[in-house]
Automatic annotation (TrEMBL):
Lineage: Bacteria, Bacillati, Actinomycetota, Actinomycetes, Kitasatosporales
Segments of skewed composition (Low complexity): 55-67
The name this protein goes by in its record: Lipoprotein
Source organism: Streptomyces ochraceiscleroticus
Domain of life: Bacteria
Pfam families per the UniProt record, alphabetical: Lipoprotein_15
Coiled coil ranges: none
Amino acid sequence: MGETMGEAMGEQGSRRTGSRRGVARAGLGLAVGVGAALLLAACGGGEAGDDAAKKGSSAKPSATAPSEGGKQDARLATRTTELGKVLTDGRGHTLYTFDKDTAKSSACTGKCATLWPPVTGTPQGGAGLPEDTGTLQRPDGATQATYDGHALYRFAKDTAPGKTAGDGVKGVWHAVVITPASGN
């Protein structure tokens, strides 16, 4: 009976420990989920995962996307995508504009700029690139590239050149389409 009682106590002890671990894991999962929701809500990206899935993009942010204030490729180019001919950075990643910006200032800072890294520096490009480029000064003092009076950004969830998952996020993020695809 001693062994049976000891085995029963050992099993109960394990159950209690397992239960505590389960609660801790559930709490951690909840905290991570809330943090992710806050990050997306900070810059109008609440449905970004849904949009990314619809357009075949991975939901993982690019490891190469710099944080705000980091050096971003200001070399501009164009690339043909499902949307048509779009403006890209020098690595072929689609560039976007944000409706909440003005011609002289960027409204995407902090956590927003983590998900939507600004294209910093003076824009440079080759033949066939639209000429209406310029710069504005960001709130952190960095120079941000502009096109047609709009600040330019990448979308961290566009994990490969030519992806356009950021187009239409929350109705305020738009790919810079130079020539629409036929039928668009």
